[in-house]
């Protein structure tokens, strides 16, 4: 199918950008009208009929940021106060995340939201990470964590918890006329549990270099067959696909629906770098990257699984703090990925950020932006094994 650049731009540039990267809040009303709302998990999770605090807390934990929104958590409830968190191994991302590093970071964010929600309910969540040992190069069947809920009348709710339902990954362009100054960045960094491991910059030369680097990495990924196809295969095109599979990369903005129905926006078109759709996709992806006034990043001293979990905990905390301040946060993970085509850019970003002695676990754009709508979630009951 051939479409002119102009017609694509007029119908789709904003919509692809918004759908892939963020949605204006108005879009959510339409989506909410569908009978099965793939974003229902964000509506008052505590209104659950269950009186089990573990289920109430899990209803918040499933809202954690996680790579490609794969939601790989599998929960076993044990007795009346314990739960076991494992990874559904089929939900990993072997091409873009060959060492399961990012998947593990997502579990760190999940555990932090679980802990926060438990404390809001008056429970201490006693978390034992990797109770049967830390996995090696890939995650395996062994649990990620064992969690015991213990009532504690003295426990205080984490102040960041109140922002959980407003938190988003914001993929839109940020306001380049509004500086994110050092005081603001310091407040965001203050949410970290490991203050020595969180960094940020709005310095013009460094941010310009970072914009170039993350964009180079994005293009590299888009041109590298296996990682690109992993993402293409996880695209949910249009509302019906998103409703059937509320995970992956959701392209269901109302404007995109027309392109899907007309057969313009297809997986086939996205798979090939030569199609107008794909070229347009690159153009609309670059614009937000260029509209980035500042970056934040997390560096752990080593790349152990427990460090990856710690990075996930911190990432969601930074995201919650940014949310509380009206700031958008958007991970830029391509340059951090561990497949051969990316090795050089992975080295470059460690050199640029003077992080050679450690491992950059997360790098994100940060800036002022209108709030995005939430991303879909599988209902909690689909994530429970027992
Ligand atoms: C480890 C990790 C890496 C991520 N990398 C990217 C990325 O490179 N690009 C992106 O757009 N989003 C990235 N995300 C954000 C996820 O896509 C997002 O959390 C998920 O789609 C759910 O959306 P939400 O955060 O708005 O709830 C990443 C998240 C995590 C935890």
Give me the secondary-structure topology:
Elements: H1 5-21, H2 25-32, H3 53-61, E1 73-78, E2 82-87, H4 101-120, E3 123-129, E4 145-151, H5 182-189, E5 198-201, H6 204-223, H7 225-233, E6 235-237, H8 238-244, E7 249-251, H9 254-261, H10 267-271, H11 276-290, E8 294-300, H12 305-324, E9 327-331, H13 343-352, E10 359-368
Parallel strand pairs: 6-7
Antiparallel strand pairs: 1-2, 2-4, 3-4, 5-8, 8-10, 9-10
Helix pairs in contact: 1-9, 1-11, 3-4, 4-12, 6-11, 6-13
The structure holds flavin mononucleotide.
Residues 65-69, 102, 105-106, 109, 168-169, 171, 330-334, 375 line the site of flavin mononucleotide.
Describe, in plain words, how this protein is organized in 3D:
There is one protein chain. The chain has 13 helices and ten strands. Helix 6 packs antiparallel against helix 11 and helix 6 (204-223) runs antiparallel to helix 13 (343-352). Helix content is 40%, strand content 15%. It is α+β, with helices and mostly antiparallel strands and 386 residues long. It starts with a helix and ends in an 18-residue tail after the last strand. A hairpin with a 3-residue loop joins strand 1 and strand 2 (82-87). The chain folds into two domains: 5-25 and 167-368, NADH Oxidase, CATH 3.40.109; 40-165, 3-Layer(aba) Sandwich (NADH Oxidase). It is globular. The strands form three sheets. Strands 1-2-4-3 form a four-stranded antiparallel sheet, with helices on one face. A four-stranded antiparallel sheet has the order 5-8-10-9. Flavin mononucleotide binds at residues 65-69, 102, 105-106, 109, 168-169, 171, 330-334, 375.
């Amino acid at each position: 199918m051939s479409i002119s650049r102009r017609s694509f731009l007029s119908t789709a540039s904003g919509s692809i950008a918004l759908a892939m990267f963020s949605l204006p809040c108005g879009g959510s009303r339409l989506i909410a009208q569908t009978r099965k709302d793939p974003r229902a998990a964000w509506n008052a999770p505590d209104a659950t009929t269950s009186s089990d605090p573990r289920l109430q807390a899990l209803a918040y934990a499933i809202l954690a940021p996680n790579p490609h929104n794969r939601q790989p958590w599998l929960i076993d409830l044990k007795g009346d106060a314990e739960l076991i968190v494992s990874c559904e191994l089929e939900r990993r991302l072997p091409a873009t995340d060959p060492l399961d590093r990012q998947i593990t970071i997502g579990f760190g964010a999940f555990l932090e939201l679980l802990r926060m929600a438990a404390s809001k309910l008056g429970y201490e969540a006693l978390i034992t990470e990797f109770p049967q040992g830390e996995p090696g190069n890939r995650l395996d069947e062994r649990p990620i964590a064992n969690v015991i809920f213990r009532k504690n009348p003295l426990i205080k709710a984490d102040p960041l918890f109140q922002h959980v339902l407003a938190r988003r990954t914001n993929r839109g362009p940020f306001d380049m006329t509004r500086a994110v100054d050092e005081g603001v960045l310091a407040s965001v960094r203050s949410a970290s549990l490991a203050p020595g491991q969180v960094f940020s910059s709005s310095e013009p030369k460094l941010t310009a270099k970072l914009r170039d680097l993350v964009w180079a990495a994005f293009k590299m990924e888009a041109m590298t067959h296996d990682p690109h196809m992993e993402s293409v295969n996880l695209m949910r095109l249009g509302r019906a696909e998103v409703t059937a599979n509320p995970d992956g990369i959701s392209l269901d903005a109302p404007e995109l629906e027309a392109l899907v129905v007309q057969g313009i926006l297809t997986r086939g078109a996205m798979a090939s770098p030569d199609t107008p759709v794909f070229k347009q996709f690159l153009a609309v992806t670059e614009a937000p990257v260029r509209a980035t006034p500042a970056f934040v990043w997390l560096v752990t001293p080593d790349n152990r699984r427990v460090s990856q979990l710690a990075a996930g905990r911190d990432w969601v905390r930074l995201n919650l703090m940014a949310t509380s301040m009206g700031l958008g946060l958007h991970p830029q993970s391509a340059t951090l990925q561990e497949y051969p085509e990316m090795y050089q850019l992975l080295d470059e970003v460690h050199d640029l950020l003077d992080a050679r002695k450690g491992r950059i676990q997360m790098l994100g754009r940060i800036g002022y932006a209108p709030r995005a709508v939430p991303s879909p979630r599988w209902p909690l009951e689909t994530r429970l094994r027992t």
